[in-house]
Amino acid sequence: MADDRLIVAMDVPNALVGLKLADELGDAVSFYKIGLGMLTGGGLGLANELKAERGKRIFLDMKLFDIGATVEAAVRGLAQFDLDFLTVHGDPQVVNAAKQGAAGSNTKILAVTILTSLDRGDLDDCLIKDGLIPDLVTERAGRALEAGADGVIASPQEAALIRALPIADDKLIVTPGVRPTGAALGDQKRVATPASAIRDGANHIVVGRPIWQAENPRAAAQAITDELAAL
Fold it and tell me: Which residues participate in catalysis according to the annotation?
């Protein structure tokens, strides 16, 4: 049985390529992330196919951000697809609206803290307040959880700090920016290996290119689940 602590990011061009990847991975993977880049390439249809027809778990990574009424309506519409996880930006008012939209469904709302592709220089360019990234991530995570988020998205380098928050004791921590030993970093700047991310408090890790760009994607995924099984 596949280890659902591994979520494979389907950052591929369209749903047809995504289905081909799912065929290659087979029962080695049970959980998939479908992001904004796939939305116009049949992403929602792919999510429904994987969920309803193949029994996979689905993380829809939309990172929603808008006024409360719009976020609530968007989440209510997306929740009908029986998603497992859905992301929104971690601003308390956005989280609160998303939770209202997800009411009555099984969809877990995960709050984005600070994107793993950003460093302090990027935050300065965005006029984000001064402070070390780990401190800002922890503060944003705490506020999102207080607003009702079921969990947070955060770099594996901040997972332990978030897990140490009293309010995070039974909440989900999902970490992108995970790279197997020796893998290229790509556009990620704050990374860790799969095992270290789980040891530091993550419930799930998200891995994309190191799997779907591999010569043998199934073997790449299996190597990661084997690493997790050894913990």
Answer: 63
